[in-house]
Specification:
The chain is an alpha/beta fold. It has one domain: Dipeptide transport protein (Rossmann fold). Helices cover 26% and strands 27% of the residues. The strands form 2 sheets. The chain has a 7-stranded mixed β-sheet, with helices on both faces. A 5-stranded antiparallel β-sheet has the order 6-5-10-12-11. Strand 1, helix 1 and strand 2 form a beta-alpha-beta unit. The radius of gyration is 17 Å and the shape is globular. Bound molecules: zinc ion.
């Protein structure tokens, strides 16, 4: 089985605070280390489950969060920024998964819930259904008929992926009581849980269907500020109200457009 993993940092084990997810902040190195440990556990688990190709996208911020020289062999890693939103994903893969994932903007009891921007976006809808970054990636992968089979992140992200995609192997590495505080598994237990769930996801028969949407897709975005909606109108979006815009896009591969 060939598997593509999308990673983020807000849902990594032990990560709760802003200083752990922003470069040049005092605890950022800790955040990078925890994300790298999660990715390593997922890669080792997928390999043990029989995955024959694993590609992992460093998806947070500038795409330079992995401690690359600490990542295991047996996978390839996409580092840096630019080009397609999800580079090298195509129909040669069999399934996709998430590591370190967070839930969508507005989710209660979640660590850093947001959709693309904490400060700018109140919500995103695809054909009338509210989606976050989980939905965006699932829909993008759905273009290639690839189902989501694995997710590690906080408890809210696990619930979100299951509501959208069904019987995904999930690992809740933490449970939020505020956006910046959570009850976390120990590092050793998170390693074990991620490894085992990833192994099962690669080993078992796929129990989820690809997340497909009807095209063209209506993307609606609700911003926090009028000026942000104005910017979208200038690039061809239609205004719905002061802070909300909509646009029709031809393909699921345009799902990240705002
Ligand atoms: Zn992020």
């Amino acid at each position: 089985m060939k598997i593509y993993l999308c990673t983020d940092m807000e849902g990594a084990s032990g990560v709760t605070m802003r200083s752990e997810i922003e470069p040049n902040k005092e605890r950022y190195e800790f955040g990078r280390r925890m994300l790298t440990r999660d990715v390593a556990a997922a890669v080792e688990g997928l390999k043990a489950g029989g995955a024959t190709r694993i590609v992992v996208l460093d998806g947070h911020g500038g795409g330079d969060n992995f401690l690359y020289d600490e990542l295991p062999a047996g996978a390839e890693y996409i580092c840096g920024r630019g080009g397609d939103p999800i580079p090298f994903l195509d129909d040669s893969f069999d399934a996709v998964g998430f590591v370190g994932q967070h839930s969508m903007a507005g989710t209660p009891d979640a660590v850093w819930p947001h959709t693309q921007s904490w400060t700018d976006v109140l919500g995103v809808w695809a054909n009338g259904r509210e989606i976050g970054e989980i939905g965006q990636f699932a829909i993008y992968a759905g273009h290639y008929n690839l189902p989501v089979i694995f997710l590690s992140g906080d408890r809210a992200a696990c619930a979100e992926v299951r509501a959208l995609c069904g019987d995904v192997q999930t690992v809740a590495v933490k449970q939020a009581c505020s956006p910046t505080r959570a009850l976390c598994l120990s590092r050793a237990e998170a390693d074990k849980a991620i490894y085992e769930a990833a192994r099962e996801s690669a080993r078992g028969t796929i129990r989820t269907a690809p997340c497909t949407v009807e095209v063209p897709v209506e993307i609606r975005v609700r911003f926090t500020k009028t000026s942000l909606a104005d910017g979208c109108v200038q690039t061809g979006a239609e205004r719905v109200d002061e802070v909300t815009v909509r646009r029709m896009v031809p393909s699921a591969l345009d799902i990240y457009r705002m």
